[in-house]
Design a protein that fits this description.
425 residues, mainly beta, Pectate Lyase C-like, Immunoglobulin-like, 6-stranded parallel barrel, 6-stranded antiparallel beta sheet, 38 strands, 54% strand
Length: 425
């Protein structure tokens, strides 16, 4: 089914589907990503106005209404005016205005009881107003369930039962629902009886990628994603089915690797909309390891000699890119300059004497570095320039560190030329 765009500002360009009480819509309406734009229903003296006027024992999936205008006497809802035992999931109303004297909701005017009377994974950004029982998502909910949904729309009413999410409620089960405190202009999620279910958040909090994780909590299959790659909802979360190719999770690019001693530094670009990256690496022919990093760089520490492969992919709130392979690289840790490095006493309880000669080499910008077994640098000692086979000495103090094994590296001009182990007792 193709998206429908109705004539703009043309009143009554579509009639509500289903009439109360004798002609309900029954069965399943699977929009499969359908959007209907510019729906305009102007029936101020008629009840039960919305895309659907009356649904009974029905299922509504994956449909969005954009820029809807609907007004009726009582029972007006963007998606359904009067929903009885109706299951709605992954639906939204985005932009426009709704009005009714009573029972006006951004998604549903009146949600009537039934074992299948559930709203899950839906949102509304359409202005909702009326007198009594006005809600950003539902005007009145009776023995029904509303979950994993949010409202970022102005909600206003003159009488009783005005709430950011639900206007009035009777034994409603509502959980994991949120609303913009600023945009709705309301302080209570449910107007009548001052229910405390539902939480008001700032716009900044609702635009944060962490809010998407919150909205998806408890769902077997996530339905929410962030709206920041190609924004279509002012930065507020959108449904995964609203995904377009333009919003694909951008893959890493320009992968490079640099060997530095027994560490390998990996860098890349791209992945602008990624929450984090997954790096997979290992010796060729062996089981790889995976690590996560929030930045476009990663260092592999304590690398042994051998041939290595590596690859990286982006992880976004709405999916992942494919892995992108870096060039295989050969690490030869043993190919140091012709140097002798001696540590004593070894094992030690504190101070370690370091002796070395460069033999036929030359030491310039020399340093002695101490690392723990996790690759964390703990200490750096600068040493004077040296040439030839003359014996050089220095000291390192391990007394402040825990017992265990440490690595002492001799660095020459930024390159590791020798590594020895020392045991701290």
């Amino acid at each position: 089914m193709n998206n429908i765009v109705l004539p703009l500002n043309q009143p009554n360009n579509m009639s509500s589907i289903g009439r109360f009480p004798n002609y309900p819509f029954k069965g399943t309406f699977d929009g499969n990503g359908l959007t209907i734009t510019n729906l305009y229903i102007d029936q101020p003296n008629t009840e039960y106005q919305g895309f659907f006027g009356y649904t009974l024992n029905a299922n509504l999936y994956e449909v969005g209404l954009v820029n809807i205008t609907a007004s009726g006497r009582n029972y007006t809802g963007g998606m359904v005016a009067y929903a009885q035992n109706t299951y709605m999931r992954d639906c939204y109303v985005n932009g426009g205005t709704l009005f009714a004297l009573s029972y006006c909701g951004g998604l549903v005017g009146y949600q009537q009881q039934g074992t299948n009377s559930i709203i899950s994974g839906c949102y509304n950004t359409c202005t909702v107003s009326g007198n009594h029982y006005v809600g950003g998502l539902v005007g009145f909910s009776n023995y029904a369930t509303v979950r994993n949904s949010y409202v970022a729309a102005s909600v206003a009413g003159q009488g009783n039962g005005v709430g950011a999410i639900i206007g009035g409620a009777n034994e409603v089960l509502m959980y994991n629902c949120y609303f913009s405190s600023t945009i709705t202009g309301q302080s209570n999620a449910i107007g009548e009886n001052n229910f405390k279910d539902g939480e008001g958040l700032s716009d900044e909090e609702m635009r944060d990628p962490a809010f998407v994780v919150t909205l998806n909590q408890g769902l077997v299959t996530p339905v929410w994603k962030s709206d920041y790659a190609v924004p279509i909802n002012n930065g507020f979360p959108i449904l995964i089915w609203q995904y377009s190719d333009a919003e694909a999770c951008e893959a890493p690019a320009n992968l490079t690797s640099t060997v530095s001693g027994n560490s390998v530094i990996l860098n890349w670009t791209g992945g602008e909309n990624a929450n984090y990256f997954i790096v997979e690496y290992g010796k060729v022919g062996e089981e790889p390891q995976q690590e996560n990093t929030p930045n476009a760089t990663f260092t592999i520490h304590n690398v042994q000699e051998g041939n290595y492969f590596w690859r990286v992919k982006s992880v976004c709130s709405f999916g992942e890119s494919n892995f992108v392979n870096g060039d295989n690289l050969t690490v030869g840790i043993a190919s140091y300059d012709n140097s002798d490095l001696t540590l004593y006493p070894n094992p030690t309880t504190g101070v370690v004497n370091v002796q070395f000669t460069m033999n036929n080499g030359q030491l310039s910008d020399g340093e002695i570095m101490v690392f723990d077994v996790y690759g964390r640098r703990l200490q750096v000692v600068g040493i004077s320039d040296a040439r030839g086979a003359s014996l050089q000495t220095a000291e390192i103090d391990l007394s402040q560190y825990a017992t265990g094994i440490y690595l002492v590296k001799l660095v020459n001009g930024g390159k590791v030329v020798a590594v020895r182990k020392v045991v701290k007792q």
